[in-house]
UniProtKB/TrEMBL annotation:
Name of the protein this chain belongs to: SnoaL-like protein
Superkingdom of origin: Bacteria
SUPFAM superfamilies from the UniProt entry: NTF2-like
Pfam families to which the protein is assigned, alphabetical: SnoaL_4
UniProt domain SnoaL-like: residue ranges: 50-141
Amino acid sequence: MLLTLSVLALAAQPLPRVEALPPPAFEDAEVLAAAQAIFAPLETGDGPALLKLVYPDGRVTASGTLPSGFSGTRSRSWADYAARMKLGAGFVERISNPVVEVDGDVAMVWAPFTITEGGKVLSCGIDHFDMVRESGVWKVMNITFSSRVTGCPGQ
């Protein structure tokens, strides 16, 4: 009887929370580095350099309000986007607190971003990178992002 009561008392206790183990850190780091690599050519307006890091037939999709004043949803191929880039763009985009998920040769990065120019915050939102690994190299297939020009950190 005492054993039964002890077992029942233990069974009534909540179990500790269990979380899945994260994927290997080296794989996350490779994916994240490939996603972040596109910022340099975006910031300098170097279309040819950008196309080396992405799948040209992939897409850039924005939803929300952009610093240019455009509001709504707009989507272009990377090739079209790169052709419209202007050298010396001058903005700086940084992500924070990225979440990286990897399954074989497919991955995604989800992260808040802030875009600044001359130290002034222009916009912010969430970047979603759709990544594919081919021949051992991670590239950005698509990037979809939300954007707003008010309510950003640092404004």
